[in-house]
Amino acid sequence: MKQLFTLLLSLLFTLQANSQVIDTILFENFQLDPFPAMGLVPLGDDTTWVNADEDGIDAVTQVDDDKRWTYAEFYFNALDSLTGETNYCASSYSYLLNSLPGNRNWLITPPIHVQDANYTFHWKSASYQMPRYLDGYLVMASEGSNDLYAGAFTDTLFQAASMVSISGNGQSLDIANFEFTDGYIHANGVTDTTYYIPSTGIAYGLLEPHSISLAPYTGKTIYLAFLHNSDDDNLLALDDILVTRSTASGTNDVALADLRFVTFPNPVENVLNVLYRLAEPANVSIQIGDVQGRVLQNLSLGRLNAGEQQQDLNLRNLPAGQYFITLQAGDTMVSRVISKK
Ligand SMILES: [Ca+2]
Ligand SMILES: [Ca+2]
């Protein structure tokens, strides 16, 4: 008994020494169609999402809705990382009627007040085809206004490359056979097989996570935007758009933010969804503790592969109150406080 107590005490000490809290500031996983509530033209000071079609050109599908970002089932039937259900995403065509160039579709977040240097922006993207007809896009930021027509979005935070031409074998997975715009080529230039499906004569992109620190905007209210600006490529998907705030004061904020540790919903009645990402394989455990610092449950998950991870915790039998959910992955430990109804 004494040994167990000592063990608990040492575990607690570790928890307190390393505890970090990551809050979710904004989260959209597109599982419930958010598009009907979005603005279609930015007014400069919108407080909702805006889905703006700057080019007005019909997509090859000639369905009016397909001129801009739309609600769609993810092309390859992957499950939603949070709910485990059929995955829905935001989708946009750059394959326009008569192969016209000029696609410019904007998806703009509500305003985000960046209170300190611990804000991080996360999202996932996938080009339907790659490397042939790879869809590129920009992630942009604007201080104070979302009026894209007035040139509000002056800062480019991320550029995903799009295919410009085929200079060799169009059936190849070797990117040397293609020309691209500047920027990041999906799946690390078609070397990371986690993020695409190879196939005969073509590869299909799978959702790949990205993160950017918003520290340069500390103290500012900003809008973030995805601009799908590929010319004559195919189809692009976005999912799991997330802004987190780490209240960590340590030096390892980047590693913590990279875990992308999210719990949902809060308050929770029965089942808590735990979502996180491993940059490399790691031994993982999840602990439930009370506010007195006692560990109530320790769930060892063993050694898990790199990538997106999801775990459901059944909290049905816990009394109502506040609890710590602590994720340990290798040497990194993060905690969130949740309320149980
Ligand atoms: Ca989704
Ligand atoms: Ca358009």
Describe the structure.
The protein has 341 residues and is mainly beta. It folds into 2 domains: 2-21 and 255-340, Macroglobulin (MG2) domain (Immunoglobulin-like, Sandwich), CATH 2.60.40.1930; 23-246, Jelly Rolls (Sandwich), CATH 2.60.120.200. Helix content is 9%, strand content 43%. The chain contains 3 helices and 23 strands. It has helices at 2-18, 186-190, 253-259, and strands spanning 22-28, 50-53, 70-73, 88-93, 105-108, 112-113, 119-127, 137-143, 155-160, 163-166, 178-180, 196-199, 202-205, 208-213, 221-228, 235-246, 262-264, 271-278, 282-290, 295-304, 307-314, 321-329, 332-340. The chain is globular and about 65 Å long. One calcium ion binds next to strand 4.
CATH-scheme architecture of the largest domain: Sandwich
Determine the oligomeric state from the structure: single chain
Query: For the residues shown, what is the average pLDDT?
Result: 87
Radius of gyration: 22 Å
Estimate percent helicity: under 10%
What name is given to the CATH topology of the largest domain? Jelly Rolls
Largest sheet: 6 strands, antiparallel
How many discrete structural domains?
Answer: 2
Task: Specify the overall morphology.
Answer: globular
With helices defined by DSSP (H or I, 4 residues minimum), what is the helix count? 3
Low-confidence stretches: 1-19, 249-254
- Helix and strand composition category: mainly beta
End-to-end Cα distance, whole Å, is 32 Å
Secondary-structure element sequence? HEEEEEEEEEEEHEEEEEHEEEEEEE
Q: Which compounds are bound in this model? A: calcium ion
The proportion of residues in beta strands is: 35-45%
Which CATH C-level class of the largest domain is it?
Mainly Beta
Number of strands: 23
